[in-house]
Amino acid sequence: MTLTDLATRTYNHSFRLDPIVRSLLDTDFYKLLMLQLIHSRHPDVEVTFSLINRTRTVRLADTIDEAGLREQLDHARTLRFTKQELIWLAGNTFYGVERMFGPKFLEWLADFQLPAYDLRVVDGQFELSFTGPWAAVTMWEIPALAIVNELRSRAALHHRGRFALDVLYARAKARLWEKVERLQALPDLVLSDFGTRRRHGFLWQRWCVEALKEGLGPRFIGTSNVRLAMDADLEAIGTNAHELPMVAAALADTDADLARAPYQILSEWQEDYSGNLLIVLSDTYGTAAFLRDAPDWVARWTGFRPDSMPPIEGGEQIIRWWQEKGEDPRTKLLIFSDGMDIDSIEATYHHFHGRVRMSFGWGTNLTNDFRGCDPSGDDAALAPLSLVCKVTRVNGRSAVKLSDNPAKATGDPHEIARYRRVFGTPDQSARPVRV
Amino acid sequence: MTLTDLATRTYNHSFRLDPIVRSLLDTDFYKLLMLQLIHSRHPDVEVTFSLINRTRTVRLADTIDEAGLREQLDHARTLRFTKQELIWLAGNTFYGVERMFGPKFLEWLADFQLPAYDLRVVDGQFELSFTGPWAAVTMWEIPALAIVNELRSRAALHHRGRFALDVLYARAKARLWEKVERLQALPDLVLSDFGTRRRHGFLWQRWCVEALKEGLGPRFIGTSNVRLAMDADLEAIGTNAHELPMVAAALADTDADLARAPYQILSEWQEDYSGNLLIVLSDTYGTAAFLRDAPDWVARWTGFRPDSMPPIEGGEQIIRWWQEKGEDPRTKLLIFSDGMDIDSIEATYHHFHGRVRMSFGWGTNLTNDFRGCDPSGDDAALAPLSLVCKVTRVNGRSAVKLSDNPAKATGDPHEIARYRRVFGTPDQSARPVRV
């Protein structure tokens, strides 16, 4: 006798929409930390965030149905923080700190809604942008990326048989577990999930996070995904992102203000946060320039997150700088999070082991690695895109990022040239951006 | 919101027994073909079948709870052929033949019940045997093996976490699919599932069968498991087994009768069946002896199933014999089913391709290959046993099998010596029996 759950079956066969984002906490923790700072210190800044598909060869609008994308974006706009989520944000401890989020901020969050979006199709690509107050628009970054990425996965798998799907996920599970077993051999590993934005899908990210929790125990310190951290009783992990110096820089009226802007926003950050949240993201306008001009107090921060240089090269550069500043690197923390995978995690771990504290933020290659998994033999349809959602305009001005890798530079070309001059950042050779 | 199916959840957490064998059709097709012959021609023969664990190093009774084994055996005895199953046996076409099973036989089947069993624990092993009319006892072979094997799998996995189990089955699926992809490269492959007796479990066998159906299309010709053939609309595959010549030999009163017995039972078979069911299993008392003394009509049968010699060596021996008898091997069929796996299937296929028709019966290494799949890293607990259930006594006499591999010989030592003398079968060197 086969028992059929009629309600579930009927639901599965007739639902109107399978929402990709079902919670406003289904975002990265650093967005909430930055949001609190933005809300309290920069409530009047108007910004535009834009979706940028660096993988131009994939014509996203040919793969993903525009109406389906609108439905998902519209659904995300209906979401509000639930009472349970707000209580958790208020009562939970983050990085060992109680009451990380103040009561006024939480009160404001209770009415938060994602703002309107602007969507057009141009030459096979989506032009998706969000314009409005920084404290509203910034929250679109992660859901917008998660929605587009998951719609692409769904499109790739839309007409597959149940069996092909079963084999595909079986292989992906086996593939991830091989990585977990290699990670188990690194006794002092400290690793967290940074894979929300580029994930294959929400449920798959959840599986990956649970796999790391089971496989690595306390060496898996948590996830950047706030909702998964809440549901799986994990630490929410994250600090800050390029948007802080990018907006601060765009707001600068003179070249002198521009040169000071990246440090000015960090000083705001350290007034609001402390301890392990004092992590410098140094590459926005070139790490070499950042270190050269940094005030001494930056060397006393807990650590750095090199984000656009090969990890060993980037780490060595920062260690040398700490030593010049009289700091002991063994007390300092390096967080590696740029396109890491099992090989580069192992190599970086062994290279720096004993010389500096390390933590790995594992993103795309954790939550969206289906290489060799598709029974059709074609990996292209499920290969992750280099898709980002970046601040592009601030109060009418172009927002600029230089990065340590010119392939990741964004902004108006004239402004890029000016920023290069002000920061003294040469135009290095570009490396291909894989993820 | 999470919908909980309360009935399913309550059932899953409180059932008394999870039956391993749930249908009398959950057996190999050759048992039914043989059963019809036994029922019509040898209704009065009394036999004993005994479970034999050739893997003596595994103390089964230390792993499997005796009370649990009794519960499963008792449950199998409560089963009857259902009306749906009997209608299917009557109305289905087997090997292109309608009404393979006669109405009198089906009428008798309607009341069929597995007979009593005798179970003791001796030195860490189960002494499990079945004594009674051949036409009842013979039907214990497959369910007894399936029950013991699945109880062992369950014991191995009993205290594993949900996650370890998920990874284990994901790896096993990925592993099987790698094999399927290699088989897809063999355009003229003819393959069927022979894995019921040694399966990891019923649900896993079903997955494997569905995988082959999906992955190989018409090159997967069917399954020996009658219930799976019925449920998945596949051909039921099988012909006859060693028990026919073994019982016929044991019934022989003189040495001359003994020498004739293996051919006598084949002549009965060809009176009852035809076409692709005319497959010779030649190794019971040594293939060389069998071929040397075989009447000419045996060469006109459709094919052979070499079962205890390396496949290429065994196939070449039979091809030479066909050629001596003036038969064209290209019109003949060789069925390879002894411990085959992907490597030996590929090698055998390429060796004989174009020279003879071939079919592969893939058993243990299809439905019970978990090598490298257990996250604990220990493969031993899930490694398949060389477990058989053989006729051991016939009307009070010892039943004997010599085989082409002396490691597979069974029977009273004095009788084995007499059989060797009568059939002129030398005591070859034994090869290890892996599965």
Features:
five-stranded antiparallel sheet; globular; alpha/beta; homodimer; 12 strands; nicotinate phosphoribosyltransferase; seven-stranded parallel sheet; 435 residues; 19 helices
Brief summary of the model shown:
Chain A is an alpha/beta fold.
Description:
Chains A, B: One of its GO terms (cellular component) is cytosol. The structure is a homodimer of 435-residue chains. Chain A is an alpha/beta fold. The first copy, chain A, has one domain (6-423): nicotinate phosphoribosyltransferase (Alpha-Beta Barrel). Chain A has 19 helices and 12 strands. Chain A has helices at 6-14, 29-41, 60-63, 66-78, 83-91, 103-109, 134-137, 141-157, 162-183, 202-216, 226-231, 243-251, 255-272, 287-293, 296-299, 311-324, 342-352, 364-367, 413-423, and strands at 46-53, 118-122, 125-133, 191-193, 220-223, 235-236, 279-280, 303-304, 333-336, 357-362, 387-394, 397-398. In chain A, the strands form 2 sheets. A 7-stranded parallel beta sheet of chain A has the order 6-5-4-10-9-8-7. A 5-stranded antiparallel beta sheet of chain A has the order 2-3-1-11-12. In chain A, strand 8 (303-304), helix 16 (311-324) and strand 9 form a beta-alpha-beta unit. In chain A, helix 12 crosses helix 13. Chain A is globular and about 70 Å long. The A-B interface holds A 3, 5, 7-8, 11, 161, 163-164, 166-167, 169-171, 173-175, 177, 181, 210-211, 214-215, 375 and B 3, 5, 7-8, 11, 161, 163-164, 166-167, 169-171, 173-175, 177, 181, 210-211, 214-215, 375.
